[in-house]
Amino acid sequence: MVKHSRWLIQDADQSEQILERMQTHFLPDLICHEQDTLTFYDDFEWRLWRKDFLLASNIRGQIILTEGNDSQTFDNEVSPSFARSFRNQNLSDRLWQVSDIRRLLPMAEVETSVREYALRNFEDEKKVCKLVITRSGYADMWELTSMRGYDKDYREALSCILEAEPENPERHLYRLSLELLDIKPGKYKSKPKTKVPPEMASADACSKMVRKMWKNVRINEDGIIQDLDTEFLHQYRVALRRMRALFAQMKNYIGPEQSLWFKDALGDLARETNRLRDLDVYLEDRDYYFGLVPEKLQPGLEELFQHFTRERNREQKRVAAYLQNTPYLNKVSAIEETLKSCPSEPGEKGHLPIAEVAAQRIRKRYKQIAKDAALIHDQTPDDDVHEIRLDCKKLRYLLEFFGPVLDKERVRPVMQALKKLQDNLGRFNDYSVQRESLEHYLENHKTSEEIQKAVHALSGVLFMKQQKEREQVCGQLEDFLADDVRQLIKQLTQPTSMAQSSKGSPA
Amino acid sequence: MKILACYSIKGGVGKTATSVNLAYAAAQSGLRTLLIDLDSQGASSFYFRVRSGKKNWGKRFFNTYEELLKQIKASDYDNLDIIPAHQSFRHFDALLSDHKKRHRRLRQVLKGLKQEYDLIILDCPPTLSYLSEAVFQAAQMIVVPVIPTTLSERTFEQLQDFFRDKELRLDNIYPFFSMVQRSKHLHKNTIERMQVRYKNMLETQVPFSSDIEKMGEHRSPVACYAARTAGGSSYNHLWQEISQVMDS
Ligand SMILES: Nc1ncnc2c1ncn2[C@@H]1O[C@H](COP(=O)(O)OP(=O)(O)O)[C@@H](O)[C@H]1O
Ligand SMILES: [Mg+2]
What we know:
The structure holds two protein chains of two kinds.
Chain A: E1 4-9, H1 12-22, E2 27-42, H2 47-50, E3 53-57, E4 63-67, E5 70-74, H3 89-99, E6 105-120, E7 127-135, E8 140-146, H4 151-162, H5 173-180, H6 202-225, H7 230-249, H8 251-254, H9 256-272, H10 274-284, H11 286-292, H12 298-324, H13 326-341, H14 354-374, H15 382-406, H16 408-444, H17 449-480, H18 483-493, H19 495-504
Antiparallel strand pairs in A: 1-8, 2-3, 2-6, 3-4, 4-5, 6-7, 7-8
Helix pairs in contact in A: 6-7, 6-14, 7-9, 7-15, 9-13, 10-12, 12-17, 14-15, 14-18, 15-16, 16-17, 16-18
Chain B: E1 2-6, H1 15-28, E2 33-37, H2 43-47, H3 65-71, E3 73-74, E4 80-83, H4 92-97, H5 102-111, E5 119-123, H6 130-138, E6 141-146, H7 150-165, E7 173-180, H8 185-197, E8 205-207, H9 210-213, H10 215-218, H11 223-226, H12 230-247
Parallel strand pairs in B: 1-5, 1-6, 2-4, 2-5, 6-7, 7-8
Antiparallel strand pairs in B: 3-4
Helix pairs in contact in B: 1-12, 5-6
The structure holds adenosine-5'-diphosphate and magnesium ion (MG).
Adenosine-5'-diphosphate binds next to helix 1, strand 7, helix 9 and helix 10 of chain B.
């Protein structure tokens, strides 16, 4: 019922002129006039910005959230850190959708002045309309809000403003102001894409890709050291893992010796952070674990999680120190030196065009899965299922790395089909890993009886869950090996598709 | 949604001052509040600077709540809306006498506002009539300003008699002292006597205050221009006491 309009007026003089004209219709009563500094926050990946959100705090302890062209103000808030730490539930939930566990970091400041007017009628000096003028370096934002029972006055004020033909902003003043300050998202992506032409020699194409991935390793170090949020470590490890996968699968093209060296060197880096990542995952999944055991065993679990929290803090400090010390820095420079010269001794097929090689690898991997799957039935030992899971993972990497070189559009449906299977196999694996690692913990730590009871209960539940997933494996495999997916793979990897996509790309 | 009435058989005792300032205090505390000015004199409306439209809509007042919705006006303050009085409200009694379930009528029509408001405050004219009966039926709490004099005490008793007579709930009546002048012996004695006698007597006393008197000049609640004076803060205390009673 309350009406609201907004305009941008770039010329400050024009703004004052309209205000003057207003005076023939109303008494503009300046209720407050404040200078404000807005500090804008986003996560490391700029996910708020990318989803058309802006989050700002001002000097009065308010939080302003804009989504598209709408903005909402929340009073008495804490200064931003994580989506979940805001007091207001609605604010917290909306941010959680976009940035979940990532820390919100200050990224820019904008100075504004805000004037709030009550537009009063002459006969009673009654407030009949609300007018707020926010001035930033970019423009004045005029916001007119109606008051119940005073629609006529609102229309009068409206026409008074419209005479000046102001712009209806397509985007919010804040976004425009930030752009004026040349603020824009960084290019960081957790899985960066490297453009390589389809006919590029496979050894060179792969080297180009790993060099790009390596940047992600380095860029996440600082966030791990400062312990900003757990995603930094996660994405650091993702980058290492993807590099290793690429060296492993393409060693015969990049060159076996160098590939092996990289695999080991990168593996060393990853290993140092294994425990910290395990603990992060436990702590993030706290609610999930508590949901799995009956209430009477929860005190034991609570105790276990207290151990985890303490160990996590110790481990974080250790990793932070390790990342800043000479042995690590030496390894890093050795890797960087070697990356520069990579491929130093390409494999004998390293000169083959990447598109051709990729197609051949994908076909081969799919066939391998089919072959292994033929031996799987409901009673096959878990180890064989794990074998297939690893095959699938490899295929997944090939599609991620080389899909765009082949045909972006055709990769998507294959990925979707594969994802369903991988989710099933992934859960199957996760449950057993969780179970083993909990039991491992008991073997290596002196723990109270409560903890032991809780872990045994948990282990039981996880075992059941694993069985459930196991029952679905055969069906999922069947789906993935069915004719339609087989056709998709064929289309993706057939020579014509490659020829087509190479036409559009620069040589 | 709660309904609170400011009522007295007597005029000039501070009903309107109470309605206006309680409505403001309630709105400030975060309740979505609607003040309905039932007195055709329109004093509450005047204090909030709102006017009714010219149309003679009073005859539709008791029809449906949609009729009321159309007349609502925003005050200058957050959370506080007003239905201003209209000349035609003088004929409410005649209007109600034609209704079959006239005692229930007001309550019924106000019910429709419960989506939009947490609290309705009724500023009443000083009559004992069909309208006041309808008000007594509708309100959970009837707040009665009493100037501590012998005469006021007697009119307060008249009100109680009326309640007994009509079998209304006596314990919905909450008197409090208004325009208190501590220096006057008569005031002091009356207060002491009545405090013992009426268990529902609210503790807060609103003093006689020139700041409250000046509401007519300022045309705003007293807390907006003299919040820290004895008079200016008294209604806030009164509101806190009342909201405790209402929530219990
Ligand atoms: N506490 C008070 N101190 C001084 N003057 C008051 C006080 N309360 C009300 N008045 C003044 O007394 C007059 C009558 O008050 P009002 O609230 O209109 O009474 P009612 O609504 O009962 O007729 C008004 O002029 C008002 O300004
Ligand atoms: Mg009155």
